[in-house]
Amino acid sequence: MTDDLVETVRDRVTADGTLSEAAKLLVLAALAGPGVRAGGGAATGGVAVAGDPVPPVPPAGGPRARTYLSRVTVSGFRGIGPAASLHLVPGPGLTVVAGRNGCGKSSFAEALEVALTRRSYRWAKRSAVWSESWRNLRHPHPARIDVDLAEEGVGTTTVTARWTSAAGLDDVTVATRRPGGARGDLDALGWEDDLDLFRPFLSYDELGALFAEPSKLHDALAGILGLDRLEDAAKRLTAQVKDAAGPAVEAARLARRLVPELLSCPDDRAHRAATLLRSRTLRLDAVAELVTGAAGADEALAALRRSARLRPPEAGAWRAARDVHDRAVRQHAEALAAAGVAAVDTTALLRAALDHFDRHGGGACPVCGQGRLDDAWARDARAGADRAGHAVRAVDEAAARVAASATTLAAAVPPPPDALLAAGEPGAAAAAACEVARAQWERLRVLAGDPATAPADVLAAFAGVADAVDDVVAGARAALAGREDAWQPLAVRVAEWLAAARRAQPAAGRSADLRSAERWLKANLTDLRNARIAPLADRARQIWSALRQESDVDLGGLTLEGSATRRRVELAASVDGADAGAFGVLSQGEQHALALALFLPRATAENSPFGFIVVDDPVQAMDPAKVDGLARVLERTAADRQVVVLTHDDRLPEAVRRLQIPARILEVTRDVGSVVAVHRATDPSDRYLSDARALASDQAVPDDVVSRVVPELCRLALEATCRDVWFRDQFARGSARVEVERSWARARTTRGRLALAVRGDANASLETWLDERQRRAALVVCTAGVHVGLPGDPHHAVRDVERVVRELVGARG
Amino acid sequence: MTADARTEVGRLLDAARAALAGTGTTGTLPQRRRARAAAVVARAALELAVDARLVEHGLDLHHATMRSRLICLSAVVDATAGDAAAVAWAGLSSGCHQHAYELSPTWAEISHLIGLVEAVL
């Protein structure tokens, strides 16, 4: 069924063109179970190559070995006092255990359930008073249950449940003993999950309760169909999606909170970060640069930083220049005084006259107009100018120095820096401060450049500029600090986002695949469910149609709907062709029939290890026609299962007899002191023999008919017994079911089948066994008699065959 | 089976159905008696059908008990028909008899049994 499920899903997944290969693998891996991850690296084991998604599931084994019941022996438990045994024939077949209410037959069923599961459904639902009275009142100790199981491939295993004299029901000790003496506890059988899943015990109570709680019915069906595996797989995918998306979700969550704050932050970096965080294409490196400060600052920030670095002009340079200038002026005055101002002027005049003479030649003196300027004059004048020249040159040089120092002085205060020109928005406080500082600075330049200004005034102006610049710097620093205060914490969080986004990046591809795998599985869950349930619904419908008899309710589709607390089973039904919600229109008896219809398929699922099912009182609340249907259903089920039915009234045994269904009918009686006994009422061969006797006794039946039909009935009786003996012996020995059935089918002759029962081999010789006269006579009746008719008295023939039948059953039973 | 027998069985079964439905000459029957009347007619049809099938195989059991006839039908003629006949016989027999402590057979039950009689043919 498990492989079946994977198969179904694989077919669907493969057919789905919208799903990526990776996503397909993820779906199949999730189905394969926890711990299996597609594409997850070394731990995954066999992950298939793309294009042929083969899920890593354990290889499918053959059909599971089945176990049958051989015997249940009970003492000191419920209605059973001293030890009583219920002998069953291991292997397929129908056994009806009939007994009046209170005879102890249900105690066998409960004992079986307790021994195999340590609990009983009946008690789980009842109060403590109920479960405290589990011991037999007249025979409370020892309380003990022995169950002999015929395990295919193993042999007869005994499960023993024991209680000490003071123990409560739950304090049971369960031990198992395998052939060869290997001992273990209950877990050694490895049935814990299977017992839950396939529930080979069906009781009236349990069947009724399933309809009372739709979610229970749902769970029971879902479990058997492996649907819980689908749900689990969906859950696993959801968890994986969450895992894989974790960092991305975290990053998105961080970004969601961060972006508005970034946008409300005045810092330009914050705005840029916001843009990056909101961008569809992730530019993690750009974000990293922003956070680490590696990114270039913006203009406003740069201006602020420049403003913060502003220095006021130095008074020192100006002072030095001013000193130089003042000295130069003083020295010029001194030189002038030393040379005599007149001499200097005269010399200047002479040089001008000589210059004039050199350019225009001699002539009348242009100054006085009486003298004459000629070469002689020029010679004298030059000599005179040269004589005075020394002193006059000193004056000239001093004058040049004055001019030079004045220039230096004018440039001693630099122009206001650009930072003052551009800082801040016009009108803002920072801009106003800059404006003031710049005006002061310009005024200082004018004052400082003018040698006439009193030094004290200049120094006062310096101080004014320094104050104004300080104002600007302080403002800029405050603005800078404000921006950092706002940005720094944001930067830390952007860094957190960055880390999350970096973690999310490698998972992004896988995450997308997981998401589509999850979406696909969830979308297909309902379909898958109902595809899985269809075969079971078909079987249920078949069983229902046998059971319903005169019910006018037609069973339609069966679907599992809803999930979590709203999960339930939907059953389509129609009454006389009109749609009706099934559960409402069913009578009590019909509900039980339906529960049986649903759960017989469960208990007889192909991969169940249980070859047996025990049905306790299915007949209650059923009307006669349905009992016939039930008998037919049980007959069909018994074709390949050991079906044990416990019933409190005659109707089912009666129906089985009337419908001539091959069945073993056991009768349970209870005497005073809780002494319970099981009697063999009839088995299949009895029916044939009783028919043979009835025919032989009917005088109105012609002899030729009697001699034709009686041997046929005798043969059927003998072969039915041989079959029982063969199956019982082989199953008790642990032989493989398929082999046992094959050997039986191959032994076509009555003699061969007798040899199987007597010798365990269809080809073995029966000669020594047939030495006894009656045995040989019986075989002759069943073989030659069938073909040539009975040689003698039909009553004798029936008696001979019956004796051999009893001998075979007794010798091996 | 002779055509006569087949026709006769068919006629009786039609009558049984008519009785059950309350149509035709049995239309005057009160409703609570219809199923029982139908059972009686169907049982007669069953007897006829079983005999006819036995005769087909050279078995003249006209005077034998119904049990013997049913056993022979199953063992010699046709196991499926034999099973159907046995079930129908048991059901119709109990449907024919009025017991103070038993409820009347239901419409659906008799109708189902009539179907089984048909299967014997």
Biggest beta sheet attributes of chain A: 6 strands, antiparallel
Query: What is the total tally of β strands of chain B?
Result: 0
* Overall 3D form of chain A: rod-shaped
Beginning-to-end CA distance, first to last residue of chain A: 37 Å
Amino-to-carboxy terminus distance of chain B = 8 Å
Percent strand of chain B equals under 5%
Secondary-structure class of chain A: alpha+beta
Query: Rg of chain A from C-alpha positions?
Result: 58 Å
- From the helix content, strand content and strand pairing of chain B, which structural class follows? mainly alpha
Number of DSSP E strands of chain A: 17
Q: Name the chain pair with the biggest interface and residue counts per chain.
A: A-B, 23 and 25 residues
- Rg result of chain B: 14 Å
Q: Helix proportion of residues of chain B, in percent?
A: over 70%
Low-confidence parts of chain B: none
For the biggest sheet of chain B, the summary is: none
Number of domains in the coordinates of chain B?
A: 1
State the order of secondary-structure elements of chain B, H for helix, E for strand: HHHHH
Explain how this protein is built.
The complex is a heterodimer of chains A (813) and B (121). Chain A is of the alpha+beta class and 813 residues long. Helix content of chain A is 60%, strand content 12%. Chain A has 29 helices and 17 strands. In chain A, strands 2-1-4-5-6-7 form a 6-stranded antiparallel sheet. A 6-stranded mixed sheet of chain A has the order 8-14-15-3-16-17, with helices on both faces. In chain A, strand 11 (553-561) and strand 12 (568-575) form a beta hairpin. The longest helix of chain A is centred in the middle third of the chain and has 94 residues, at 455-548. Chain B has 121 residues and is mainly alpha-helical. Chain B has one domain (3-120). In chain B, 74% of the residues lie in helices and 0% in strands. Chain B has 5 helices and no strands. Chain B has helices at residues 3-21, 31-56, 66-77, 79-96, 107-120. Chain B is globular and about 40 Å long. The relative contact order of chain B is 0.18.
